[in-house]
């Protein structure tokens, strides 16, 4: 396997890790739910979103992200091993960790550029062993080296477009997209789910839009993941916002946190 600069930090126990995100109703699904990994009852998501130890900053984000519905749609459930790819400050890592519970595990991937961007958010989230079942994986974009057949699910939430972002001066060299997706594919168990959430770009927009506007044409996601061997398994409309202006950077104050987003579920074939 390729040389790697991985640093695994094991974070110890957190008691009462009993649940997951907000109520999971009102999910539109154009494809069949995974047959071998049904989502747990809504209560596990509700428990995670309403956990008493969550920060006010995270809670304020919930209305625009609907994390309970998202994790429910992806079929995250107790006992799973989940990779949160480009996890940023760890918002979804924390919620997934509470859903998978003490019998599960979440690997929270980050890199130097992301770590610098989020500042103290991730440090504070993982301090004092808050999350018992979370393992931090520090790996640069083209040095990812994951164990084979490890994960029941992989999350790429508001991150797929970053495959096409380039800023070498600030630690983000051009990513070898096919190599990255192949690495994720081989790390997943047969039947495992890949969950993708991202900001809509105009239909027909080039890949470079991922780097300029931090948006992506969903057809690019479908095409690239299809080439990588993944099978499209359904979509949800829960994060649609038809008033979004696709011509604006997703971080523009007029649209930030309110962009039109697609929610796609893929699977690695059995």
Report on the structure:
With 270 residues, this protein is an alpha/beta fold. Helix content is 28%, strand content 19%. The protein contains nine helices and eight strands. The chain has helices at residues 42-49, 56-65, 67-74, 91-100, 112-118, 120-126, 177-187, 209-212, 218-227, and strands at 7-10, 81-84, 105-110, 134-138, 151-157, 188-199, 231-236, 261-267. An eight-stranded mixed sheet has the order 1-4-3-2-5-6-8-7. Helix 1 packs antiparallel against helix 3 and helix 1 (42-49) packs across helix 4 (91-100). It is globular, with a radius of gyration of 17 Å.
Largest sheet: 8 strands, mixed
Share of helical residues = 25-40%
Q: Based on helices, strands and strand pairing, what is the structural class?
A: alpha/beta
Helix and strand pattern: EHHHEHEHHEEHEHHEE
CATH superfamily: Vaccinia Virus protein VP39
List the helices and strands and how they pair.
Blueprint: E1 7-10, H1 42-49, H2 56-65, H3 67-74, E2 81-84, H4 91-100, E3 105-110, H5 112-118, H6 120-126, E4 134-138, E5 151-157, H7 177-187, E6 188-199, H8 209-212, H9 218-227, E7 231-236, E8 261-267
Parallel strand pairs: 2-3, 2-5, 3-4, 5-6
Antiparallel strand pairs: 1-4, 6-8, 7-8
């Amino acid at each position: 396997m390729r040389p790697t600069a991985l640093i695994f930090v094991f974070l110890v126990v957190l008691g009462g890790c009993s649940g997951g995100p907000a109520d999971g109703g009102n999910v539109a699904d154009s494809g069949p739910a995974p047959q071998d990994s049904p989502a747990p009852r809504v209560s596990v998501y509700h428990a995670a979103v309403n956990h008493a130890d969550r920060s006010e900053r995270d809670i304020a984000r919930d209305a625009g992200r609907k994390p309970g519905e998202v994790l429910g749609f992806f079929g995250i459930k107790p006992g799973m091993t989940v990779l949160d790819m480009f996890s940023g400050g760890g918002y979804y890592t924390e919620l997934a960790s509470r859903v998978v519970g003490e019998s599960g595990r979440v690997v929270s991937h980050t890199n130097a550029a992301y770590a610098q961007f989020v500042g103290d958010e991730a440090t504070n989230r993982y301090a004092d062993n808050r999350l018992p079942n979370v393992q931090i994986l520090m790996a640069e974009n083209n040095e990812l080296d994951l164990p084979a057949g490890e994960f029941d699910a992989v999350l790429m939430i508001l991150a797929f477009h970053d495959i096409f972002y380039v800023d070498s001066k600030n630690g983000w060299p051009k990513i070898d997209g096919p190599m990255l997706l192949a690495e994720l594919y081989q790390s997943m168990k047969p039947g495992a789910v890949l969950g993708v959430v991202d900001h809509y770009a105009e239909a027909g927009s080039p890949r470079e839009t991922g780097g300029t506007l931090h948006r992506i044409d969903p057809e690019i996601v479908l095409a690239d993941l299809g080439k990588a061997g993944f099978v499209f398994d359904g979509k949800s409309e829960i994060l649609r916002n038809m008033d979004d202006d696709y011509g604006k950077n997703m971080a523009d104050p007029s649209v930030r946190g309110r962009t039109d987003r697609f929610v796609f579920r893929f699977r690695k074939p059995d």
